[in-house]
């Protein structure tokens, strides 16, 4: 069969030829593999939030109508958001607790903005399994600690929305927010 | 599977042996599109289009499933949900344009695949079933493409749905109830949109199923080849893998380059501007035309302008349009020449070229407005189309004197090699030159 | 049997088509179809050059901003732009603060529900809002515009053949009806309330010429705002609104094609090598 190699115009005879040819096959298959991976990127990325969803990722809340002791439920990123105007008594109750002994140690001051301690802004999503706790609406069960109570599995939150009793592992999440004026906040 | 000299799947690793015992799927793939499938060694590039059609279907299914994630099948939001996908979804424009142009490419490769079969007599015994299943796939594709075109709920979507379902309305007595039943109303609306979406999602998987049958039926006699001479022995074949997988890999590259040029640089070239106007049941576009791949059939539909006694021209057009596809199912029994390949049938070859030109003319007329001279031209072209398959082909196969066939595939490869000379015998053309010392 | 049946069916269809052809041809010769006024006087869009022409062209951000200004000061009084949001203006080079200000000062307010009373009301748009529509619904739009509904402009340049040039030609194409037209088609005189424009498919357009005088818009960047310039700029802007991802698409396309060319060349070499091997084995 050696004569075949001699008539072969591509001159692929010998050890080097074999290696070069293997290399080309491997290169071709690798290129196809890289291409396949590159195609997967947009196929996966298209499931991320789209631009219109991201554009609604911040919520402005007007605080003027919320009296001390009241709370409102609004939405932030399509989830409930609790904005609570704490009374002096509730603030005192929250401050009285030794934060160090809590399941998720945090003081009320750490969970609110400096000088605006009466405005408690939290997500209305129980940190256990994501139910909406009661306590923001008028006449709802506020739980044993006067804050929020999640009826799904009985988690009790105190007036600083910290977990005090029940299965939830964390305090209600405080989203990133800032005061745009004395009576308005921008969440997100 | 088909030839005794086919290579056998012999797993070496204990794991692959274990899998082979429990579920011989790798063995199935090996025998279907692997080294276990011996294929004639002389296939030319026209034999690439089967695999490319499979690739096109995969592109359509992947991009289609993604489009469905962002689509709202409701007349109030359908149009805007697609705009939203184009503008706001990450890479949404890519998915949408790939899906829309992918449909066109699917039809391009399938048409090439069909005309390859027509030229090389791939529909003849023993491959009639392969041809029939292929036609079933083609019909399913047309239904899928039509329903898919309705989904964006643009002007052409709406009026296309109205006109095509109106075809059924031409059937006497039961026509109108059928049209109403198809639409779930008296005009295209929410009910139509939802059922079209549901079926548009379902049918591609049915197509995939029929493709499996198509390949199964193909594997019983084995692939045809450009000479039309059956495989006589191991010297006539090469294993599908790596020989034709490599060739199909190259073919896929060329396909993807052409696809990318259209997709990225002229994504609306094959579309119609009117489909960027939201559907308006109160205003018909000046020229309603279907997508380009339906144009030849649309020309046949519109070619009938004179009533035949009690049969209205409209019904004749509908019958003729369906007949133009259905007649292909009878092709294996219309063309009775024992010679398969058009290369050895001089008269057949000439008429095949006339048919190609005829279909191109029909396509052009189908896309043109319904005015003269296009109607007259499409009447002549449609007449030829029917005459070609139903009259001319049976006559040719009776009276034509074919050229002498090569003794075997290998012999034809050798002859070609000798004619062309050593230096420019490209294995790329499928005619793999036999080494000189073998002869 | 099959062949006899086929022969008869073929004869029927082909024969009847030829008869239909003869009937049509006789009619065509005996009374040739009359030329319509649209056939004679409708013009294809003018040739006009833009920075985004060709496969690798890019938008000219300054031009898009000028075009946006024309849209804002002229078109938006009657035409909606419902698929475009204020936030999208980042794509033509505005920053977050500018977009916020544009939304706040937009002449048309976004419809909303009063959070206290639940009544329908309006508020200032924010960046996440889509451009508010000038008319509450089609009935209001038709009533205010002599029964013609001004179409949404978001997709206008894709919804017309050669759309960018079409918009430009339409805006600069208003003229008096040619004397020739009146002479040959006396019935085709532009009706009261419509405006003759040979670039419009049926020649008579409900929209009055929107850009009538040089300097109608005062450009911030000092460009002279001739009617031609304003038409060109707003056509460019509407090309962007119809296809905001144009540049991403072309960039991705270039990369894809370069990659595919290399991959295909490798596939070709690999294919040749594999078949060369076959030669050896045979």
UniProtKB/TrEMBL annotation, chain A:
It catalyses: a quinol + 2 Fe(III)-[cytochrome c](out) = a quinone + 2 Fe(II)-[cytochrome c](out) + 2 H(+)(out). Binds 1 [2Fe-2S] cluster per subunit. It comes from the Bacteria. InterPro entries: Rieske_2Fe-2S, Rieske_2Fe-2S_sf, Rieske_Fe-S_prot, Rieske_Fe-S_prot_C, Ubiq_cytC_Rdtase_Fe-S_su_TAT, Ubiquinol_cyt_c_Rdtase_Fe-S-su. It is an enzyme of class 7 (translocase). Its EC number is 7.1.1.8. It is a single-pass membrane protein. Residues 88-186 form the Rieske domain. Pfam families: Rieske, UCR_Fe-S_N. It is found in: Cell membrane. Its cofactor is [2Fe-2S] cluster. GO terms for molecular function: 2 iron, 2 sulfur cluster binding; metal ion binding; quinol-cytochrome-c reductase activity. GO terms for cellular component: plasma membrane. Keywords: 2Fe-2S, Cell membrane, Disulfide bond, Electron transport, Iron, Iron-sulfur, Membrane, Metal-binding, Translocase, Transmembrane, Transmembrane helix, Transport. The Rieske protein is a high potential 2Fe-2S protein. Component of the ubiquinol-cytochrome c reductase complex (complex III or cytochrome b-c1 complex), which is a respiratory chain that generates an electrochemical potential coupled to ATP synthesis. The main subunits of complex b-c1 are: cytochrome b, cytochrome c1 and the Rieske protein. This is Ubiquinol-cytochrome c reductase iron-sulfur subunit. It comes from Sphingobium vermicomposti. The lineage of its organism: Bacteria, Pseudomonadati, Pseudomonadota, Alphaproteobacteria, Sphingomonadales.
From TrEMBL, chain B:
Keywords: Electron transport, Heme, Iron, Membrane, Metal-binding, Respiratory chain, Transmembrane, Transmembrane helix, Transport. Its cofactor is heme b; heme. One of its GO terms (biological process) is respiratory electron transport chain. Residues 15-227 form the Cytochrome b/b6 N-terminal region profile domain. It is a multi-pass membrane protein. The chain crosses the membrane at residues 45-73, 93-118, 130-151, 163-184, 196-217, 250-271, 292-311, 317-339, 351-370, 376-396. GO terms for molecular function: metal ion binding; oxidoreductase activity; quinol-cytochrome-c reductase activity. One of its GO terms (cellular component) is respiratory chain complex III. The keyword Transport applies. Residues 230-407 form the Cytochrome b/b6 C-terminal region profile domain. Binds 2 heme groups non-covalently. It is found in: Membrane. Heme b b566 binds at residues 113, 214. Pfam families: Cytochrom_B_C (PF00032), Cytochrome_B (PF00033). PANTHER family: CYTOCHROME B (PTHR19271:SF16). Component of the ubiquinol-cytochrome c reductase complex (complex III or cytochrome b-c1 complex), which is a respiratory chain that generates an electrochemical potential coupled to ATP synthesis. The main subunits of complex b-c1 are: cytochrome b, cytochrome c1 and the Rieske protein. Belongs to the cytochrome b family. This is Cytochrome b.
TrEMBL record, chain C:
One of its GO terms (cellular component) is membrane. It comes from the Bacteria. Binds 1 heme c group covalently per subunit. GO terms for molecular function: electron transfer activity; heme binding; metal ion binding. Heme c binds at residues 75, 78-79, 207. Gene3D superfamilies: Cytochrome c-like domain, Cytochrome c1, transmembrane anchor, C-terminal. Residues 62-171 form the Cytochrome c domain. Its main location: membrane. It holds the Pfam family Cytochrom_C1. Its cofactor is heme c. It is found in: Membrane. InterPro entries: Cyt_c-like_dom, Cyt_c-like_dom_sf, Cyt_c1. This is Cytochrome c1. It comes from Sphingobium vermicomposti. The lineage of its organism: Bacteria, Pseudomonadati, Pseudomonadota, Alphaproteobacteria, Sphingomonadales.
């Amino acid at each position: 069969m050696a004569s075949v190699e001699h008539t072969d115009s591509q001159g692929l005879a010998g050890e080097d030829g074999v290696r070069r040819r293997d290399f080309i096959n491997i290169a071709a298959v690798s290129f196809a593999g890289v291409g396949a991976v590159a195609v997967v990127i947009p196929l996966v990325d298209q499931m991320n939030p789209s631009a219109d969803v991201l554009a609604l990722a911040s919520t402005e809340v007007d605080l003027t109508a919320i009296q001390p002791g009241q709370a409102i439920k609004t939405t932030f990123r399509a989830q409930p958001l609790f904005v609570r105007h704490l009374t002096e008594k509730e603030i005192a109750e929250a401050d009285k607790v030794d934060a160090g002994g809590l399941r998720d140690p945090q003081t009320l001051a750490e969970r609110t903005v400096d000088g605006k301690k009466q405005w408690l802004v939290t997500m209305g999503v129980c940190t256990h399994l994501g139910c909406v706790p009661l306590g923001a609406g008028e006449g709802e069960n506020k739980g044993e600690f006067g804050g929020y109570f999640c009826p799904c599995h009985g988690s009790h939150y105190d007036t600083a929305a910290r977990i005090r009793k029940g299965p939830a592992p964390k305090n209600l999440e405080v989203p990133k927010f800032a005061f745009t004026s004395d009576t308005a906040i921008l969440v997100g | 599977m088909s030839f005794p000299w086919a290579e056998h799947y012999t797993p070496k690793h204990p794991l692959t042996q274990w899998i082979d015992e429990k579920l011989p799927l790798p063995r199935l793939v090996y025998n279907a599109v692997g080294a276990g499938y011996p294929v004639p060694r002389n296939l030319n590039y026209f034999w690439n289009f089967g695999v490319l059609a499979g690739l096109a279907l995969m592109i359509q299914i992947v991009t289609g499933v993604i489009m469905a994630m962002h689509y709202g099948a409701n007349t109030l939001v359908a149009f805007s949900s697609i705009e939203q996908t184009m503008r706001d979804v990450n890479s949404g424009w890519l998915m949408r344009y790939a899906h829309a142009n992918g449909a066109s490419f699917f039809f391009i490769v399938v048409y090439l695949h069909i005309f390859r079969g027509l030229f090389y007599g791939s529909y003849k015994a023993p491959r009639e079933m392969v041809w029939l299943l292929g036609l079933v796939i083609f019909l399913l594709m047309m239904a899928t493409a039509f329903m898919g075109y309705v989904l964006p709920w643009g002007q052409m979507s709406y009026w296309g749905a109205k006109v095509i379902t109106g075809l059924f309305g031409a059937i006497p007595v039961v026509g109108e109830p059928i049209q109403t039943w198809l639409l779930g109303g008296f005009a295209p609306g929410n009910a139509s949109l939802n059922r079209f979406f549901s079926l548009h999602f379902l049918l591609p998987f049915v197509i995939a199923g029929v493709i499996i049958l198509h390949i199964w039926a193909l594997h019983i006699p084995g692939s045809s080849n450009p000479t039309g001479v059956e495989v006589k022995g191991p010297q006539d074949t090469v294993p599908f893998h790596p020989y034709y997988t490599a060739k199909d890999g190259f073919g896929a590259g060329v396909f993807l380059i052409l696809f990318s040029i259209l997709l990225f640089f002229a994504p609306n070239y094959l579309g119609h501007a009117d489909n960027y106007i939201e559907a308006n049941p109160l205003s018909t576009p000046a020229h309603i035309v279907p997508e380009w791949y339906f144009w030849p059939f649309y020309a046949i539909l519109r070619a009938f302008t004179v009533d035949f006694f009690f049969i209205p021209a409209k019904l004749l057009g509908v019958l003729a349009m369906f007949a133009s596809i259905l007649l292909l199912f009878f092709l294996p029994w219309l063309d009775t020449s024992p010679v398969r390949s058009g290369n050895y049938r001089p008269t057949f070859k000439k008429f095949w070229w006339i048919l190609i030109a005829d279909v191109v003319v029909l396509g052009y007329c189908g896309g043109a407005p319904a005015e003269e001279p296009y109607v007259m031209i499409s009447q002549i072209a449609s007449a030829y189309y029917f005459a070609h398959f139903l009259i001319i082909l049976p006559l040719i196969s009776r009276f034509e004197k074919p050229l002498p066939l090569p003794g075997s595939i290998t012999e034809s490869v050798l002859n070609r090699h000798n004619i062309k000379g050593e230096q420019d015998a490209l294995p790329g053309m499928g005619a793999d030159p036999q080494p000189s010392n073998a002869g | 049997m099959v062949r006899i049946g086929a022969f008869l069916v073929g004869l029927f269809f082909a024969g009847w088509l030829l008869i239909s052809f003869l009937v049509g041809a006789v009619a065509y010769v005996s009374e040739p179809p009359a030329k319509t006024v649209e056939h004679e006087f409708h013009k294809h869009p003018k040739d006009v050059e833009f920075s985004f022409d060709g496969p690798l062209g890019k938008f000219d951000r300054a031009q898009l901003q000028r075009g946006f200004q024309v849209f804002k000061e002229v078109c938006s009084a009657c035409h909606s732009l419902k698929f475009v949001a204020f936030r999208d203006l980042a794509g033509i080079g505005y920053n977050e603060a500018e977009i916020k200000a544009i939304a706040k000062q937009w002449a048309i307010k976004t419809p909303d529900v009063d959070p206290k009373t639940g009544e329908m009301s309006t508020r200032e748009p924010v960046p996440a809002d889509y451009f508010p529509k000038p008319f509450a619904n089609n009935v209001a739009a038709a009533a205010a515009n002599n029964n013609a509904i001004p179409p949404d402009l978001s997709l206008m340049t894709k919804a017309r053949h050669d759309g960018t040039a079409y918009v430009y030609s339409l805006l600069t194409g208003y003229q008096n009806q040619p004397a020739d037209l009146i002479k040959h088609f006396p019935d085709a005189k532009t009706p009261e309330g419509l405006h003759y424009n040979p670039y419009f498919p049926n020649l008579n357009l409900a929209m009055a010429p929107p850009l009538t005088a040089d300097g109608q818009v005062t450009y911030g960047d000092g460009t002279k705002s001739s009617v031609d310039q304003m038409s060109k700029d707003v056509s460019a802007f509407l090309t962007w609104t119809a296809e905001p991802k144009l540049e991403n698409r072309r960039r991705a396309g270039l990369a894809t094609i370069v990659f595919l060319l290399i991959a295909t060349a490798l596939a070709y070499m690999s294919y040749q090598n594999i078949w060369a091997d076959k030669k050896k084995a045979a």
